[in-house]
Amino acid sequence: MFAKRTSWNLAPNRLSEALAAHRAAGKPLLDLTVSNPTECGFEYDRSAILKALGNPDALSYEPNPRGLESARRAVAGYYADRKEEVSAEDIFLTTSTSEAYSYVFRMLCDPGDELLIPSPSYPLFDFLAEIQDVSLVRYPLLYDHGWQIDFHALEQGITPRTRGIIVVHPNNPTGHFAKPAEMAKLNALCSAREMAIIADEVFLDFALDGSRAASFAANRGAPTFTLSGLSKISGLPQMKAAWLVAGGPQQWKSEAHGRLEVIADTYLSVNAPVQLAIPKFLEQRHAFHKQVISRVRRNLAALDRQLAEQSACSRLAVEGGWCAVLRVPATRSDEDLAIEVLSSKGISVHPGHFYEFPSDGYLVVSLITPERTFAEGSSRLLSFF
Ligand SMILES: Cc1ncc(COP(=O)(O)O)c(C=O)c1O
């Protein structure tokens, strides 16, 4: 009685089983995979956040498929602070970046149409695409003193059914930004072949060297959807506030906006208290950003000090985001390795294959892990090799 698209294998993988057994046995665990910012010891202005949710205007209902104008203006202000000109008219509010993806997928793709996605990248795409009947085609990112798009392979992946190219900027977990030359090539490819760029910028603000990478939100060179939200920018994933910016050539934009309005109007999914709070939630980003960047830098420095004392493992260059990728001896599958590290050292790490690394020998750790846990955990992890 169920649709084939939901016939997933829902059995937990071996690592999840091992983790559950470890926890059930009450064994100590140093978790180097934490990604929920509300559980990482960051300080939030609790009263400002809660007060923002109590706006009396929330007592009346003003349905608007794009979302309340006050909230969209605040999002446009976020881009203006980054010196990017984005009109509030191009912004559609959603409950999450994941929901924004679903709007875009629905709008661009008939069943079986294809989207190109980077590999490695974060694992949610498969479910997002399957639920929308979209086929994903992976294009490789190459690592050579830093990550870059393999444009040759990307072009080979384009078929008459390709509707767009997803770029995660900066990517999770590799932490690299799309460079201006890559953005120009993406524009050329997409405008020539009537495809869209779909840019996921949830980590855009988290450049380690304090630089400010250009956003795709003001891109005019090709049809472009730019997705972001408060789950990472302000560390408020529980508030379910995100957006997509539909920008690009004017004629395409008008057509795209009309279609998006119908999709958004069908759900009107973002609730009024949260929309009204978005300007205040965006203000929280400054204090949150400061704490995250300082923690990420300190954790990375601690990791580098420990890596310098051994020769079996190294880390890949990281430009931004919340993760570090470790190159470790590929003596067994990454999943077996993560299980053994858990059972022998009480450390939880992500195996590279979660993110579709091209071979074994990669582990991923979260740089927003509280510092003492990170220092102790990474030291124990390295002592495994
Ligand atoms: C690259 C990337 N995009 C999107 C998301 C999901 O964001 P949201 O909470 O807005 O759905 C994540 C979550 O980790 C992510 O890593």
Overall pLDDT metric: 97
Number of helices: 13
Quantity of strands, as a count: 14
Which molecules are bound in this entry? pyridoxal-5'-phosphate
Spatial strand sequence of the major β-sheet: 2-9-8-7-6-3-4-5
Termini gap: 49 Å
Q: How can the largest sheet be summarized?
A: 8 strands, mixed
Strand content range: 15-25%
Whole-number radius of gyration?
Answer: 21 Å
Order of helices and strands: HEHHEHEHEEHEHEEHEHHHEEHEEEH
State the shape: globular
Structural class: alpha/beta
Contiguous low-pLDDT stretches (5 residues minimum) are none
Helix content: 25-40%
What does this structure look like?
With 385 residues, this protein is an alpha/beta fold. 39% of the residues lie in helices and 17% in strands. It contains 13 helices and 14 strands. It has helices at residues 14-24, 46-52, 69-81, 97-108, 125-131, 151-156, 180-193, 230-233, 250-267, 272-283, 285-307, 334-345, 371-383; strands spanning 30-31, 91-94, 114-119, 135-143, 147-149, 162-168, 196-200, 224-229, 242-247, 314-315, 323-327, 347-348, 350-351, 362-366. Strands 2-9-8-7-6-3-4-5 form an eight-stranded mixed sheet, with helices on both faces. It has a four-stranded antiparallel sheet with strand order 10-11-14-13. β4 (135-143) and β5 (147-149) form a beta hairpin. The longest helix has 23 residues, at 285-307. The mean pLDDT is 97. Residues 35, 96-98, 122, 168, 172, 200, 202, 229, 231, 237, 242 line the site of pyridoxal-5'-phosphate.
